[in-house]
Amino acid sequence: MPINAVVEQVDVQAVIERVDINEILTRVDIDALIARIDINKIVEQVDLNRVLDRVDINTIVSRIDVEQLVARTEIGGIVIQSTSGLFERALDTLRAQFVRLDQFTNRVVNRVLRRNPAEMPLGPPRLVGRDAA
Asked: What does the alpha-carbon distance between residue 76 and residue 82 come to, in Å, rounded to a whole number?
């Protein structure tokens, strides 16, 4: 009897139902099976764009504790240092502008009052000394 005729007479579904798949799996060496798998080849076949399209970024972002993140990375300190540095530079610039304005005002007043700049004191007598006055 040819083999095809024998196979055609076998009820494959009945054979499958009689097989205990759990018993077969207990005999499989999973570590040896995994060692034979080429992970790089599998990863090359993955379409990352399709995977990323299925990721809900808003859900991921909603799980982030921003306060803890800032505390761990010390971003707060960096922001404070940067802000205070900018504020100090702005304040220094403002002070320099006021000094220039004060000097300009003194020159205008001295011209209006016809004062000779060579005869003017260098500053308050207690600060510059009585000899300079």
From this structure: 10
For residue 128, what are its two tokens? 């510059």
Distance from C-alpha of 125 to C-alpha of 115, rounded to nearest angstrom: 18
Residue 66 per-residue DSSP state: H
Q: How far from the centroid of its chain's Cα atoms is residue 104's Cα?
A: 48
Q: pTM here?
A: 0.33
Distance, in Å, from the CA atom of 5 to the CA atom of 7, rounded to the nearest integer, reads 6
CA 109/CA 76 separation, integer angstroms: 49
Question: Residue 31 corresponds to which tokens in the numbers above?
Answer: 């570590």
One pLDDT digit (tens) per residue for the chain, 133 residues: 688 888 788 888 888 888 888 888 898 898 898 888 888 888 888 888 888 888 888 888 888 887 787 677 776 677 777 777 788 888 889 999 999 998 899 888 888 888 888 888 888 888 887 554 4
